[in-house]
# Entry
Amino acid sequence: MSTPREPTRILIAALGGEGGGVLVDWITRAAIEAGLHATRTSIPGVAQRTGATTYYVEVMPAQPGDPPPVLGLNAAPGRVDVFLGTELLEAARRAEGGFLTRDRTLALVAHRRAYTVTEKSEGGDGRMDEARLAQAVRETAREAVIADYDALARQTGAALNAVMLGVLAARGAVPIPPDAFRAAIRAGRAAESNLRGFEAGFAGASTPAADAAPAPGAGPGDLPGEARALAAEGVKRLTDFQDAALAEQYRATLRRFAALPGADGALVAALAKQLALRMSSEDVIRVAQLKLRDARRPRLVAEAKARPGDIVHVVEFMKPGPAEVLSLLPPGIARPALRFVERRGWMGKSIALNVSPTRPLGFLRLRLLAGLRGWRKRTLKHAEETAWIAAWLVLVERALPLGTRLAREVVDSARLVKGYAATDARTRANWRRIMEEVLRPALDGRLPPDLAADALLQARLAAQKDPEGDALDRTLAAIAARIASPSPRLAAD
Amino acid sequence: MEVSFREEIASLRLGAGETFRGEGILAVTKALLQSGVSYVGGYQGAPVSHLMDVLLQSEDLLQELGVHLQTCTGEAAAAAMLGASVAYPMRGAVTWKAIVGTNVAADALSNLASPGVIGGALIVVGEDYGEGASVAQERSHAFALKSSLLLLDPRPDLPTIVRMVEQGFALSEASNTPAMLELRIRACHVFGSFVAKDNRRAPISFRNPAMPARFDYGRLAHPPVTFPQEADKVARRLPAARHYILEHGLNELLGPPDGELGIIVQGGLFNALNAELAALGLSDAFGRLRIPTLVLNVTHPLVPEQIAGFCAGKRGVLVVEEGAPDYIEQAIAQILRKADLHTPLHGKDFLPLAGEYAPPVIAAGLAQFLDRYGQRFVAIPSLAPAAAEAAKRAVGAVIPPRAPTFCTGCPERPVFSAMKLLRQETGPVHVAADIGCHAFATFAPFHQGNTILGYGMSLASAAAVAGTNQRRPIAVMGDGGFWHNGLNTGVAGAVFNRDDAVLVVMDNGYSSATGLQDIPSSREADHEGRGKAVPIERAIKGVGATWVRTVHTYDVRGVLRTLKDALSDPVKGLKVIVARGECMLARQKRLRPAQAKAIAAGERVVQSRFGVDAEVCTGDHACIRLNGCPSLTLKPSGDPLKDDPVAHVNNDCVGCGLCGEVAHAAQLCPSFYRLDVIRNPGRLDVWRLRIGNWFLRLFGGTPITEAPKLRPPAAVPVPAE
# Structure
């Protein structure tokens, strides 16, 4: 008896609504066209709507007189010959399910990310590490091809699934001749663009994304090497934001910190970033300035997919509240005014402005706001921002003698402060809490510096993890408990 | 009806000897026509929606055959429709999603099963069990047992499925018992082929109507005849069914006729079992088994002599039966006991008590069973566990789940943005959730909903919360659920009982979650539409509710204001908010081709989409936490100073406007903008742009687009998307 014929088993991991169903349909129809036994199934249902889903196909060469085959409906871990992934995280998810194995799986994966809501929701950077996701596929597959097929799809104006089909056909891993795939595409919708995509994938003209490494910066020579490029960027930003004087003030601050004992390159680099961001924190004036920027126009036209002869108008959604409007006044006037507004309970009031910078009135409004740049240094917003920066820098300076790592965490804590209006208020309040409940005990000697550095990092991540939730409360409570009862080992230290 | 099934309809017309190709549920549809049904009905729900959807568009074919087709308003209506087969020798089929649909239909099912049928009655249930399921995990088997229904569970290949539909009718007639045919999700979507037969015209149909049946008290499910009916079920119908099953070989004995060991498996699980046996060298891809296997294509009733015959003389038998409780295993144990057979019986001792029998689960159970009897089949050790470990190490973090979510531009999302803002302002509110797309609000980023009790039952499920809670509860219901159950169970009940609750009805125009089916409030407009445009507000007021407001869902501030009004209204009683906004899937299907056509024809069309200024966005992503639109995503900031990624609107944006609304309502940030692209601008547009651009230049600005010539060159069509 000859060795039993086995089907080629193909698992496709995709996001619902992306056309995975069309992809398996092409494969099945091509297989039938080529005279093979074929079956496929899927679990669409609720998974349609951008949820994670899989499709499964089995194909097997047919011989005359074959009894009806009994093909599988479920992919089995350890028994997948070809794995197609249209998204990196979903590919890694199936790798974790054991569906990719060293002995047999050829993995063809699009190097593309569609972020999950969990990743997108974080107040900071909640994205999974792409390199590690790709690694999970590479380490488990017999052979892994991970390339930017999405770019190929965009270039050819085809759907990604057509490109993936071309890649599959080119590999010859499935006993279906390429022309059978072409016929299957022709029988379906949008045949022309899909055939284009198929051929692009078939030609294997993958375009792996080459990340251009940032050119080593020529920057102020009196700063550590790794901080120079960032400092140069910061100087540029602040000159644009305000003037050369502000940029010089920034440079001087960096120089002062670079000279402090214990300040290493990493610390100064982090400071170069955060200080530049804080010193150029977005006020209404800055927003108007950015909205009128020339560099913005080509991007908008491209996004609008405007053809010659089309007219593009832009509408900005601005809704400054009393806090933002009044903080444009000098502190002496703004503070009492804000107190008055607060007493009246008007802080939540605001006027929705749909400003169109492509029309005269809207343009004029933004122009006037942007023109307030010279006035900025007199505003309450500037005064408050300056005071915040000073307080933050004092904390960095005080943390430095306790350890460079702790000081760096204090520098990075500025990443917490961001946004406008309510977001701005919330992030500042979180920052103050963390400084009060984590850094202060460290400065007072109630928490060892190394532990404090970890705790600062954890508190920052918690505050960003679910900004409206209670992750920060829980983390701070745990840190407080730790401060109240140091572990025996710590006591022995 | 918005989805088109031209190809599927063509395959329903295939004649004898032609090869049908398609998915399982479509094969069932064809098999119904081959069986000569007089009527078909059902209620939509995955994975069987397709059956009705396709038939609804096959009007010509049904006209020829005289088949009466009914879009039932619920599963109870569908089950009750089988009453035709109680009184007339008519074959009829209905379909719905199990287990939920069978629950709704239970009353009619009992009263159908009691007198029994004289025409074959078949209920096609989509067994929504296991991976991808969207309902509570229970078995239809229980209904078959309690009401004495036949239960067919065919092997998931098309010829068997089709044969079981045809035989199901015959079996139903032979035993005067209604039959259920269960198809698991993957079986509904399995693609395969079978050799078709001609469609058959029913002896009674709307082309050939019957005379009204004579009065026969014995056919009523009403005492005192219900007592003899109960006896008839067990004394006559059950043996008749068993006889037919045996005589027509509905269950299959595969593999060698004799052997020390044996396996009894539900038909629906056969392919999964076979794959694992093949991996052990005990079968192959053609199902040539090397171990005796009894495939139960009919799982109720079992035929005692068949079971006993199979088990007799074997050292051990394994029952592969998915789900809990183990009805089949219990029944087999009883059969063996009564036959005084001592064959050791295994099943849930080696296989899990609950959960889907996915390949690794079956593999583990089989291995234990074979090992127990010293059969050491050498399976090549699986590399899967090691691979899974390696992948986890490589990823080094927990991969977040990817639950389904509201589509891009979904009109229901804004309501939950408003509800999240409400929660931030007023603190927690009890939210009674329901079945439908809006149940996606239970996932990130909305995390709303305290209970889900059933379709259209949200308001009823809040009845005891209203009045015992510090705040009025909010019940959310879709228009699908509203017409299915909610109007009566919810609204009428709450008005009658003076419940102090808030109801939000999502009026998106279709039963969207199940595939855009029309409902009574659907638009009447196009030729394919079956809607009656019945205003939901009128229905609500008709049962006595007085506080009824209508809001447009994209108006987040308006929804928020109305919700606050409803929660704070000093007068106790039901407050109903009808949240209106057409399902974006349907809307795009309608609008896109029309727009492309208009643009190609040179007509003035304004298209909008949203964007985010990366320089203005600070990367806090509060917008995403309030919105969650798939097209609102992240991208690297492109700024060496900014570490965190910024928000970004991708090309899927349909310009629904929610981004701007949320930015305003939550006073978020000024980074959102809308692009309005005027295609084929008119004279007025061009003149206004000229003047505007002149003005911009005067003040040192640069216009974004130059004014085109007044007579634009021939219109360029927009590429089809």
